[in-house]
Fold this sequence. Notes:
The complex is a heterodimer. In chain A, 66% of the residues lie in helices and 0% in strands. Chain A is an all-alpha fold. Chain A has one domain. Chain B is extended and about 50 Å long. The A-B interface holds A 16-20, 23, 92, 94-95, 98, 102, 125-127, 130-131, 133-135, 137-138, 140-141, 144-145, 148, 156, 160, 163, 167, 170, 187 and B 1-2, 5, 27-28, 31, 34, 50-51, 54-55, 57-58, 61-63, 65-66, 69-70, 73, 123, 125-126.
Amino acid sequence: MEIITKLLTETFGLQLDNTGQLVAGGLTMALIMALVMATCAIVWTWAERKVAGFIQSRYGPMRVGKYHGALQPVADMVKILGKEDIIPDDADKPLFVLAPIIIFIASLLPWAAVPFAPGFIASDMDLGLFYIFAVSSGAIVGILMAGWASNNKWALYGAARGAAQMVSYEIPLALATIPVVMRTGSLNMNDIVIGQQGGIFHWNAFHDPFLFVAFMIYFISSIAEVNRGPFDMPETESELVAGYHTEYTGMRFALFFLSEYANLFLVSCIATAVFLGGWNLPVGNAVVLPGLVFLAKAVLLVLIQIWIRWTLPRLRVDQLMHVCWKVLIPLSLLCLLGSGILLMVSGEIAA
Amino acid sequence: MGDMVFYLFALMTVLSGFFVVFSKNIVHAGFSLMFTLFGVAGLFAMLGADFLAITQTMVYIGGVLVLVLFVVMMTRIPAQNLPKSSFNRKIPAGIFSVLIFAIVFKVIGGTEWNVLPVDAPEATISMIGQKLLTEFIFPFEYASIVLLLAMIGAAILIRERKIDDDEEVQS
Lengths: 351, 171
């Protein structure tokens, strides 16, 4: 962010006081992040359809664009822009309009604390990790709002399921990152990445068995947190049509879609930064093309999530809750205890 | 510029607070509470209390508000069936509200606050953590035991009473 404010004040000659710099820099950074979100939604829809195609022994989109349907998402976007914007007569209009905006904002805010490369972080705050979990919980309110405002049984069921699922899985998600915070001694995302320098066995995921289990818990909960298969209970086509966005069309639907793919990428980015060493290379201390290394790891995680979605069958709601409350949460508490003892025994506690 | 941001958050808090109180639609009131809570978090952040601001977002928007909304949505009352509050009730309520406002206003205005110079506070979280685990360890543990008890109590309340059912079947 310092780079952005420097650019604004020096290159464009803007006269700003401290708060002004914060606001202008923040707005510019938010714009960049919104563009990143839009780009990843475009790339991921294409990737998802191609991977799904390969898994099911077919090609996926092939026609639009020269190479393997590469322009398909662009065509889809133009199509979705041209769709009629329908608001059902019995919908609660103000809430119906507000809901996709809130979900979009809630999925845009956490990007402020994602460290893509040394110095390339929108806000290098001390509470980074905590901030990410806090602001992304706003999406639950947006989902409830969408489901209620649609005035539709399926949407309401989807929203209730979605909210229950996200509230439950937030707990193992956050608990799984606490061993990392204990090891690093900081919630600052930059510090967490820097603390993992020096090869693959210094990455948090491969540092000791407890942290590896914590990484697995984080990964499973993150799939549930973004409501994707096999945990896509809020959207189950076979029983709920499409869940909380059943009644949405056109650009409003696109906002839901955009947030879903942005969230998918976000949880992968956080997993990369917190568990997989961020921009650090698997071997050695050198920092080479940090942004690309970071992106490569995050993309790999996204591909694994797509792979899981198209391979595993959907769980039932009660199974979902069983996994969360009776398996993942006790396991993550054990991890917490184990890595605490390990830190004490090895004397590796960060000052 | 800093003042402008402050007034923005203050306006958001107060306006949505009014909406929560005066809205006839209880679900609208519930959702509008989100903006009130977020505005308060913004004010905390402006005061340099970053930990408090984020905890406010996490606990109130991510937890309390979601619970409130669940309750409100499940007990859906059609707007026309709401009991009409008569004019008689509005007058005493108004008088008491004005009185309370006057008292609070007088107390806040009359107190001599300890005003400290603003030197950008460093990370508050490490200090809060240290204080919680040293000086305030007793209240911290006490609060967690109370919360644990509340959780166990809730779990017992909603538990299916299988033993009673069996007895009924037998008799």
